[in-house]
Design a protein that fits this description.
With 444 residues, the chain is mainly alpha-helical. The chain has helices at residues 21-30, 38-42, 51-63, 83-86, 91-97, 133-150, 157-184, 187-195, 213-216, 223-226, 243-248, 294-304, 310-320, 322-327, 345-350, 352-356, 362-369, 382-397, 411-416, 419-428, 436-441; strands at 45-49, 115-116, 119-120, 230-232, 240-242, 273-275. Helix 6 (133-150) packs across helix 7 (157-184) and helix 8 runs parallel beside helix 18.
């Protein structure tokens, strides 16, 4: 059977839909707990600080195009090059986003982006659909501006912007590899892909034509499970923001003072935690503005594009990439079994045949296998980790056309040796930030 002509990581597709329309409709209600309060009361939290949920969504916005066919937006590159922040640096966009000194234009607020005609003046409109992500966007603008002010040996403003973008992008890559992926991937998978690099599925240093659908429609959508019902933005415990408020704020008015985030509540070990990675999805994602129910969206997309099941994908990796399977201990991976969570009992009943026939959709497989993860942060299992590591590594390397990552080379060493960053650090005598919180405070 021929697969639909779209970029895939593996030449696999399901011969028939893995779920019926009736199953999808039922699961969209059960997994988002529509009409119940289970998600807020019964779901386990993870060891992952809550901010990494939205760092992941920020990454997705940079490399994955919009899935809503009615929405218009920028041309999205599969390279993790922060075009969502910088745009394409055309003459029009340089004039739109930057001032004469090469800094991002601002409104004087350290937590919100500038707005004109009631719209955020940023390349990626999706980053303004969530009051947490737009503040992450603003932090990267601030980092750029601090770096520009330190580039005293560069006089041309456009040259400053280009150089600062290279530096900010490499710093961001370091945080993605050392902080975000280290927390969220299976430890053996992270070691195999980033500590002593080997080529596995995608060719090392080869540019991606687009992000594979196994990543964009399944594996990287694990973040939907991390979403909490509510968040504390400041140290005032009486001020909480529900997902409904975070997603449905008035973007034309901009952020209010009480929405300013204290990032220590999102990116350190003692901060509020994300929900655990499992098939239970916050009720707030059951009705996303202009989108709808996220479970319905994800499972319908997988059916339409005939995305293979998790078990079929695992079998293919073991057969065609045995070295990868050995390196990450995939051959001893325990088969998935139905769980015992009370809040998911009815959903498991809907999926009984899928479990017994090893036909669980890839997205649900990735969510469910995390129960078997050995990662100390209670993160992804091996299949989800492999797909995410493979694609994010390629998306990062896509940004370094003039350099090549070598077999057995550490990804961190490769990034830290990037010439623009090295020259900047020699000039400023600064230390490299290795975590998201360190990046936010870098050069302050």
């Amino acid at each position: 059977m021929e697969c639909i002509n779209i970029n895939r990581l593996f030449p696999l597709c399901s011969e028939e839909p893995l779920l019926s329309n009736a199953q999808i409709a039922t699961l969209s209600r059960l997994l988002t707990h529509q009409g119940t309060r289970l998600r807020g009361m019964a779901s386990a939290t993870s060891s992952i600080p809550a901010g990494y949920t939205y760092l992941g969504q920020f990454i997705s916005h940079d490399i994955v195009p919009k899935t809503n066919p009615r929405a218009r937006g920028r041309t999205v590159s599969p390279a993790l090059n922060l075009d969502s922040v910088y745009g394409n640096l055309s003459s029009d966009e340089l004039a739109r986003y930057f001032d004469d000194e090469g800094c991002f234009k601002h409104n004087g607020q350290p937590f919100d982006v500038i707005r004109t005609h009631k719209k955020a003046l940023i390349p990626e409109a999706r980053n303004d659909e969530n009051s947490i992500i737009v503040q992450l966007h603003r932090q990267l603008q601030l980092l750029h501006n601090r770096i520009v002010k330190r580039l005293t040996n560069v006089t041309d403003s456009v040259a400053k912007i280009v150089l600062a973008k290279d530096i900010v992008t490499t710093l961001f890559h370091i945080v993605v590899v050392n902080d975000f992926l280290r927390r969220l991937l299976d430890e053996r998978v992270h070691n195999a892909y980033f500590k002593k690099t080997r080529q596995y599925i995608l060719a090392l240093n080869a540019p991606l034509s687009s992000v594979p659908i196994e990543f964009s429609l399944a594996a990287f959508r694990f973040g939907h499970s991390l979403v909490r019902n509510n968040y504390t933005f400041s140290k005032d415990p009486t001020v909480n923001f529900t997902m409904d408020r975070i997603l449905r704020r008035s973007t034309s008015a901009g952020l209010q003072e009480n929405e300013q985030i204290d990032w220590s509540l999102f990116f350190i070990e003692t901060s509020q935690k994300a929900n655990s990675i499992d098939m239970s999805i916050d009720v707030g994602l059951g009705d996303i503005p202009d989108e709808g129910n996220i479970v319905l969206i994800n499972l319908n997309a997988a059916n339409t594009l005939k995305l293979a099941s998790g078990d079929a994908t695992l079998s293919y990796i073991k057969q065609h990439f045995p070295q990868l399977a050995l390196d990450v201990d995939l051959f001893r991976q325990a088969p998935l079994e139905i769980g015992e969570e009370a809040e998911l009992y009815r959903a498991y009943q809907v999926l009984l045949a899928n479990f017994s026939q090893k036909r669980l959709p890839l997205w649900l497989h990735v969510l469910h296998e995390s129960r078997h993860s050995s990662n100390p942060f209670n993160a992804l299992g091996k299949l989800g980790s492999i797909i995410n590591a493979e694609v994010v590594r390629s998306s990062i390397l896509h940004c370094y056309a003039n350099r090549s990552l070598k077999e057995n080379q550490s990804m961190m060493a490769f990034l830290q040796d990037a010439p623009p960053l090295q020259r900047f650090l020699e000039q400023t005598r600064e230390s490299i930030p290795h975590t998201m919180l360190e990046l936010i405070h870098f050069l302050k």
